[in-house]
Structure formats: C-alpha cells, structure tokens
Design brief:
Blueprint: H1 3-19, H2 24-33, E1 50-51, E2 65-72, H3 77-80, H4 85-89, H5 97-100, E3 124-127, E4 132-135, H6 139-143, E5 148-155, H7 161-170, H8 180-188, E6 189-190, E7 198-204, E8 231-233, H9 251-272, H10 275-297, H11 305-311, H12 321-333, E9 338-344, H13 352-376, E10 383-388, E11 392-393, E12 411-412, E13 416-421, E14 429-431, E15 433-434, E16 441-443, E17 446-447, H14 448-458, E18 468-470, E19 473-475
Parallel strand pairs: 2-9, 2-10, 5-14, 5-17, 7-8, 7-9
Antiparallel strand pairs: 1-6, 3-4, 5-13, 10-13, 11-12, 15-16, 18-19
C-alpha cells in the first residue's frame, strides 16, 4: 500500500474510534464511572459481574470457572497413574524398536544408543469404587479417585517444556497467541468487578531441582487487548506490585489522582484513538478496587484449623503450592473466572529416585484438599479443576541402568495422563488407554486441541465460534482442530 494512503486510512480510523461520540473508549470509561462511585467492594453476594461478548455463552454452561493446576516439567505417567506390569517384566531390556524406533525425543535421549525399559519406581493399587490405579506416592489424590476423571490417552506434539506448556495454554507451540484464560476473560467476562477475571500463581520445588522459567506468555493476551491477560500474584509481599499506597497517601488522594489521570488519558485517547489507553484506564480502576479486596482475600484468619490442616503444613507460607491452592479456592468463591496455579519441579531426568517422591509430597495433599474443599462448599459442581503437565515421561531410562542414583526419564509426548474434577465432567472414570508399555496412546486418543475444546464446551462455548480476527484471519484457541470429548461429560 502507498504509505501516504496507509497513513490517511489509519488517521481516519483513529478519528472514528477516538473522537466519535460512540467511541469504544468513551463507552468503557462511561461504564466505569457510572457504577458504584468507586466505593469499597460490596459483599461477595452482591458483586456485579463484568459482561463478556453479548452472544456468549453459546449454550448453557456446566462450569462457571476453571482452576488449572499445571504441573510444569511433566509428571511421570508410568510411575503415578498408568500402571503397566510389563515395565517391571522388561526392566533393563531394550524397549521394542517398533515402539521407539524413528520417534522424536529431546536431545537428552535422541542419540542415546541404548534405551532400557525402566520399571515403575512406585507401587500401584486400585482405589475407590472406580478401581482407579494410582501410585502410593499420591495417597490423598488416590483417596478421591471416585471424584476424578483420569484421561490416560493424551498426546501432544512438543518434546520440550516451553513449547509444550505454551501449546496447552495457548493452542500453539509458538509464543504470541492468547492464553486460555485470556480467551475466557474476553468471551465470558468476569463474575466480579473487585478482582481480575484471570489470576495466575506460581511456585516451585524447594530443592530448585530444575531450571524452568515461568514465561509471561503462559498467561499473556497475545493479540487480544491486554486487559484480558492474566494478573500474576507474587509469592512474597503484596500479591501485586504497588498495590499499597505510599506512606502519607490517603485513599481519597489516590481517588483524586486516578480521576485526574483518567481525564488526561481521555485526552490522549481522543488524540490517538489507541484502544490500549482504554485498557490502561480500566486497569487503574481495577488496581484501586484491589487495594480493598486483596487484603481480605489473603487473610486466612477466618479459615478453620481443619481446613488449613487439610492443605498441609506449607499452607501458611506465601508462595508455596499449598498456599496457592487455598488461594485458588478463595479466588473461585469470589468470582474469578480462570485461576492458573503453576508448580515447577517435575523434570526428573537424573533424580527420579529421589525428587519424584518429594514433588508428590509437596503437591498431593494440597491438590486433593482443593477438590475436597470445593466439594464441601458446593462449588465443585460448577468449577472445573484440571491437574497435569505438558507431556509424560519415557517408559525407558535416560542414562545407564547400573547408575541407580542417576535414574531418570526423558520427555514423552506420545502418551500421558491428566485428571479433571467437577464442572460437569464424569466422576470416577478412567478414559482412554495406552499400550502395554505406556508408550503410545492407543484407545480413545485425546489431542491437546480436543482437551481444549472440551474445556471450552463445559463453559458453554463452541470452540469453533469463539474467534478473533487478527492479521486478516479468524483465530481461535484450538486453531483449526479439536473435537469435544463427549464421553467424559456427565
């Protein structure tokens, strides 16, 4: 396009959006100013919802919100959930070439000449009326198996962590697409004005056994307006930076400052027509409301000792996985739409014999407690809880069979397990199956996009219709793929 014509076209568009009496920014700001006069947050029961797109949901939802307990690093399915007696039978023998030959693995085992089968390092037993097989490393999760739906036939494309996590959370292995929480915030809005629609909390193993990084694009908004990105709560101090007023600055002074700042931003928006200025106005107002809502949110003094004990001894340590799980329940009951709890430390390449047990001890009780807690409070029926990582671990050994201290498993995209609870998902079932080595998903296979489509379906969304036009085409979370796994839905 001729640069002068392009400039003229952009100018006309900006004038239209920035100066029109029906401009998007004016409407958004008018909605903010016309609400409750920026007073302190009302009680939970009376908090106003923030609407999403007018035509959504597409149909009656089974779930109102999602809690995604993302286990960064990939828990070993063959040691925790996918019981395969063949592994002990073949322990130390070369895995059949018809399984592993020609398959893609990470560089850590891609050129490894020998791939001996490694028997599971845990003991399995069946639990509940459902008879689900679960490792003895996860006794609390095992005890609620009748509330869980184990999906044992997941498979993915990526063999490395960041692309694998990004794939599950955004539908693409490459960073830059909106995350699932951003899509839901955009489409469905929020049940509350006092807290963000999308909150993220991170934690890691105390041993710092792996060097995984929590990238911002795991909860980014991509090409959606930035108001839909996740708000990351910190693990120490104020959950959000600069939430507290500086010493000597009263709430009234802060209110006056925001009013003046909003007026200046209006002027700038009228000049440039930048929709991100509208986002900035909205985020300042959200921060102001969070100054009142967050202290109450993070105050555990009203929690019973029985509840705190259920989450485990780490529950009072800010930034721990247990603390974040209890926070997830409190966020859910206060109307947050998507809560993403990410815990790193599952990447056991050379320390499977030691670190897997530690990791399970840190996460088992809090994960089960969250589901029990939601169920006791009547929240589980309309809250979808998801637990799992970005892929599984290889049924064969990384390293040498003689080096027992250095036993480990590499990344494995061909089969792995996640579990779900609540939100209209069938409880007490195990769906899909792998082959006798736990190597390939062979029955009722579930791809990443199928999993995403199913999550959206439970929230009343047709994954093919929740789209956003960017760079000349309509994008969606599931790209051009995905089918709802109806067999796991109640």
């Amino acid at each position: 396009m001729n640069p002068f014509r392009e400039s003229h076209a952009l100018h006309t568009r900006r004038q239209f959006f920035g100066r029109s009496a029906l401009g998007l920014g004016t409407a958004a700001l008018g909605g903010l100013l016309g609400r409750d006069g920026f007073a302190a947050p009302p009680p939970v029961s009376s908090r106003r919802a923030v609407p999403g797109l007018p035509e959504l949901p597409h149909f009656a939802p089974k779930a109102k919100r999602v809690i995604y307990l993302f286990q960064n690093g990939a828990p070993s399915h063959v040691d925790l959930f996918d019981y395969k007696p063949k592994l002990r039978e073949w322990h130390g023998k070369q895995i059949p070439d018809e399984l592993a030959g020609g398959k893609r693995f990470s560089t850590m085992t891609g050129n490894q000449p020998a791939r001996p089968v490694l028997g599971e390092i845990t003991n399995f037993a069946q639990h509940g009326k459902s008879g689900a097989w679960v490792s003895d490393f996860l006794p609390q999760i095992a005890s609620i198996s009748d509330d869980l739906c184990y999906v044992k036939s997941l498979h993915t494309e990526s063999v490395n962590h960041a692309p694998g996590i990004t794939y599950f959370l955004t539908g693409s292995e490459q960073a830059g697409r909106p995350s699932m929480g951003a899509w839901l915030s955009y489409g469905l809005g929020s049940e509350t004005e006092e807290l963000p629609a999308y909150v993220v909390m991170t934690s890691r193993d105390k041993e710092a056994s792996c060097g995984q990084i929590f990238y911002d694009f795991y909860w980014g908004s991509g090409f959606l307006p930035t108001k839909y990105q996740g708000v990351a709560f910190r693990g120490a101090g104020d959950p959000v930076l600069y939430l507290s007023n500086p010493a000597g600055l009263s709430r009234k002074v802060r209110r006056d400052m925001l009013d003046d700042l909003a007026h200046l931003n209006e002027i700038k928006r009228d000049d440039f027509g930048d929709p991100e200025i509208t986002t900035r106005i909205a985020q300042y107002e959200m921060a102001y409301k969070m100054q009142a809502s967050v202290p109450e949110l993070t105050d555990f003094s009203q929690e019973s000792e029985a509840t705190l004990a259920m989450y485990g001894p780490e529950v009072r340590r800010q930034g721990s996985y247990a603390y974040n799980c209890l926070m997830a329940r409190r966020l859910a009951e206060r109307g947050v739409r998507f809560i993403q709890v990410m815990h790193a430390g599952w990447d056991q390449h050379r320390n499977l014999n030691t670190q897997l047990k530690i990791q399970c001890q840190d996460t088992d009780a809090p994960s089960a407690a969250l589901i029990r807690d939601l169920k006791q409070r009547g929240l589980l029926d309309d809250t979808l809880v998801i637990w799992g990582g970005e892929f599984g671990r290889t049924p064969f050994l990384q390293g040498k069979i003689e080096d027992t201290k250095g036993w480990g498993r590499d990344h494995h995209p061909y089969a792995f397990t996640k579990f779900m609870a609540g939100g209209g998902v069938k409880p007490g079932i195990s769906y899909g199956a792998t082959d006798e080595f736990g190597f390939n998903a062979v029955d009722k296979r579930v791809h990443v996009h199928d999993f995403q489509a199913t999550i959206l379906h439970q929230l009343g969304l047709n994954h093919e219709k929740l789209t956003y036009k960017f760079q000349g085409r309509q994008f969606r979370l599931t790209d051009v793929h995905g089918h709802v796994v109806k067999d796991i839905l109640a």
